[in-house]
Amino acid sequence: MNIKVNGEARTFESELNVTELLKNEAIEMPEMVSVEVNGEIIDREDFDTTVVRENDEVEFLYFMGGGAFGI
């Protein structure tokens, strides 16, 4: 199975769910990552039931806090 993860081609032997993909890609702090499959944000409670299939495009989105510089 061929998919794109964060814009890079990846090959897997079979379909897998989002949770399995996070583990396979060794994502650190997966609880802090949002996942988008084919442009749609996946609810965290659906990670185990959302299957990634041939030619899907997956993005791992990391949200970072920030601040403003004082002048």
Automatic annotation (TrEMBL):
TM helices/strands, residue ranges: none
Superkingdom field: Bacteria
Phylogenetic placement of the source organism: Bacteria, Bacillati, Bacillota, Clostridia, Lachnospirales
SUPFAM superfamilies found in the cross-reference section: MoaD/ThiS
InterPro entries reported in the protein's UniProt record: Beta-grasp_dom_sf, Mopterin_synth/thiamin_S_b, Thi_S, ThiS/MoaD-like
Name of the protein: Sulfur carrier protein
Pfam family, one: ThiS
CDD domains found in the cross-reference section: Ubl_ThiS (cd00565)
